[in-house]
Amino acid sequence: MAITLTEPAASRVLSQLSSRGKGEGLRLGIKTMGCSGLAYVVDFADDAGDNDEIFTSNGVKVFVDRETIPFVDGTEIDFASDGFSTAFQFKNPNVVDECGCGESFTVKS
Fold first, then answer.
1. If we measure between CA atoms, which residue out of 107, 74, 71 comes closest to residue 91?
2. Contact by Cβ (8 Å): 5, 60
3. Residue extents of the structural domains in the chain
4. Counting C-beta atoms within 10 Å of the first and last residue's C-beta, which end of the chain has fewer, N or C?
5. Model confidence at 109: pLDDT above 70
6. Domain 4-107, CATH number (from 2.60.120.650, 2.60.300.12, 3.30.70.20, 3.40.140.10)
7. CB atoms inside a 10 Å sphere around CB 80
8. DSSP three-state, residue 92
9. First-last CA distance in the chain
10. Under DSSP, is residue 10 helix (H, G, I), strand (E, B) or coil?
11. What residues contact 21, with CB distance under 8 A and at least 6 apart?
């Protein structure tokens, strides 16, 4: 089991945590929505929950609820800027389908 961040993603998280002035790392979750079923939820983590697994990648702690792990196990989080937008990008080996707009995904059952 692992969740990893590329160097650009880790740099972005560390920068945002520094600007925010508090926080332990990044929280990765999912929610039901969109035409394919699931969407990623990214937020700051101020502390660990009782049901969290914590992964460390490129100096950043990533907090993931144990119930979410089967949907995101093996995911690499990247950060990209194309001049018009900046966003985290997810390379999730569990994804079998994505909606056309890229907002939601389906995983292996």
1. 74
2. yes
3. 4-107
4. C
5. no
6. 2.60.300.12
7. 13
8. coil
9. 17
10. helix
11. none
**Residue linked to tokens 């056309």:** 100
Residue from 28, 23, 31 nearest 9 by CA: 28
Distance from C-alpha of 64 to C-alpha of 51, rounded to nearest angstrom = 8
Which residue(s) pair with 33 in the sheet? Answer: 37
Q: What is the pLDDT of residue 103?
A: 72
Kindly state the average pLDDT of the residues 26-41.
87
The predicted structure's pLDDT at residue 36: 66
pTM of the entire predicted model: 0.89
What is residue 66's three-state secondary structure? coil
Q: DSSP letter at 82? A: -
DSSP secondary structure code for residue 67 in this structure: T
User: What does residue 36 show for φ and ψ, rounded to 5 degrees?
Assistant: -105, -5
Token pair belonging to 73: 């196990």
In the chain, the amino acid numbered 39 is A
